[in-house]
Amino acid sequence: MTASAPAPATADPPRTIPVAMGERHRGESDGPAAPTLLQRLEYLGLRAFAFALLCTDLRGAARMGSAASRAVGLLDPRHREIGFRNLRRAYGPALPDAEARRIVWKVYEGLGVTAAEWVHGPRRLRGRARARWIEVEGAEAVRRAAKGGPVVFLSAHLGNWEHGIAAARQAGFDVIAIARPLDSPLLAGWIDRQRARTGTPTVQKYGALRGLIRAVRAGRSIAMLMDQNAGKRGRLVPFFGRPVSTIPSGVALAKRLRLPVVVATMERRAPGFHRLRFGPPMYVEDGAGGEDRMLETVNRVLEARVRERPGDWLWLHRRWRVKADWGLGGPVSGEGDA
After folding, report:
1. What average pLDDT does the segment 298-318 reach?
2. Is the N or C terminus of the chain more exposed, i.e. has fewer CB atoms within 10 Å?
C-alpha cells in the first residue's frame, strides 16, 4: 500500500505547479470585486441568522440550525435529489429508498449543526478550552513519523470539517488549510475573520504553491479537503467502486517534498463535541503510478470513514460527475447527473 519512508524533506520546490494549485479560478480577478446587491442581502441575512444563533447556548443554537437547514432542504429539491442519487450509486439496491432519503435529511440537519458550531467556535475553541470539546485519536503515530516536520493532512467534508484545523493544532500540529475562494467578498471576509479567531489559517487554493512551499520550509503542515469533484484538473480514482475526478495536488506535493500523507477526519459525538481521527502516516511511492496508488488509498480510507457515518458526509455534491470534454477517460455522467 505504501513505500518505505524516504529521507526528510530537503528537496527543492517542484518546478511544475501541481494541478489545481497554480491556475486562476474562473471567478478570480486581479482585485476584489465590489459586492453585488444580492451578495449584500445574502450577507446581511446570514449575519442576522448568526446573531440569533449566538443569543442562545450551543445546544439551542444546534436545534435552531438543524431546523433552519431542514427548511432549506424543503426549498432545495435539486440538491436533495443529487444526494439521493449519490447514495443509490454508492450503495446500490442494498440501501432502501426510505433509508437513502433519511440520510439526505440527516445531512441537511448536520449542516445546520455545523453552522451553529462554527458561529460559536470563537467562544469555545480558545487556547486550552479546545481540549474540553475535541478529543484526538492517532496523533502520537503521526508525530513519531513526522519527527517534528511537516505533514500533508488529507480530509473530507465529514462532521464539522471547519473545526478540523483547530483540532489538529490542539494535537500539536502547526497546520494551514487550503481553501477555495468564495465569490462573495463580504462572505469571504467574514469567514476569514471567523477562521482566524478559531486558529484556522488558510491560503487560497488557486496560486497557492509558493505559499505552501514557504509554509513547509517553515515547518508547517498542510491540510486539504479531498472529497470534492476536481473536474478536468483531477485524476480518475475509484470511490465507492466508481471512478471520480480526484484532486491530485496534495499527494503530488507530498511526493515532491517527501512528506508523510495522513488521512484525518472529524467525527461529531454530540453538538459541540468532536473526535479528530488520524490515520497511519503513509509515503508516496517513487516511480510511475505512485501518486495514483496513493490517491486510491486515500479514497479507500475516506470511503471507509463515510461508510461508518454516512449521515455525516456531504452527499449533496456532484461527486461522481465526469464529463467527456475533461479528457479523463472512463464513464461519463450526463449534464444533469450527479
Report:
1. 98
2. N
